[in-house]
Amino acid sequence: MRHPEEYVEAVLACVESVPRGRVTTYGAIADAVGRYGPRRVGNVMAEHGAAVPWWRVVRADGSLPPSHRGEARQAYLEEGTPLRPSGNVDIVAAFVQPPAVDPGGCTGAPQRSRPT
User: Fold this and answer.
1) What is the DSSP letter of 83?
2) Inter-axis angle of helices 26-33 and 38-48, to 10 degrees?
3) I need a surface site. Which of 25, 32, 66, 79 has the fewest CB within 10 A?
4) Interval 40-51: pLDDT, tens
C-alpha cells in the first residue's frame, strides 16, 4: 500500500514523540494524525518504522504481535516501561496520547490520557 509521504512523516514523528519508558497505541497515533485508522498506522510502521522506537507503539491492550515480543521486551526492560505479569505493557501506567499533528508533524509534550 502506498502511503502519502506527509502521512508517513506525521506517523513517524508521533512515534518519536513518545518518551522512553512510555507507550502509545496505533489508534492514538491515528487520532493524533487525524487521518485514516489504526490499521493504516500499523501498515506505515511495518513499512517505515524500523528507524523509530517502534516498540513504543502497542495494541490497545498493551500487547505486540508475537514476532516482536523478544526484541520489544528487551527495550522495555532497558527503558523501565511498566509491564504486566503476562509480559504485555501495563497500558494504564505507561500510556501517553501523542499531541495532535500540525503541518510539521507531532510537536509538543505528549499528554497522558486513556488508550484508544
Assistant:
1) B
2) 100
3) 66
4) 999 999 999 999
| Among 25, 99, 21, 19, residue whose Cα is nearest residue 61 | 25
Tracing cell 501498515 back to the chain, one arrives at 43
Task: Quote the pLDDT of residue 111.
Answer: 46
Q: Is the Cβ–Cβ distance between 38 and 26 less than 8 Å?
A: yes
Judged on CB neighbours under 10 Å (0-12, 13-18, 19+), 28 is buried
In terms of phi and psi (left: phi > 0; alpha: psi -120 to 50; beta: otherwise), the region of 14 is: alpha
Strands (DSSP E) contained in 8-109 are: 24-25, 57-58, 101-102, 105-106
**What are the tens digits of pLDDT across the range 63-80?**
987 878 789 999 999 999
Cell numbers for 32, please give them: 493524533
- State how far the Cα of 112 lies from the Cα of 86, in Å rounded to an integer: 23
Determine the straight-line distance between the first and last CA of the chain, rounded to whole angstroms.
24
What contacts 19, CB < 8 A, 6 or more positions away? 96, 110
Burial of 94: CB neighbours in 10 Å, binned 0-12, 13-18, 19+: buried
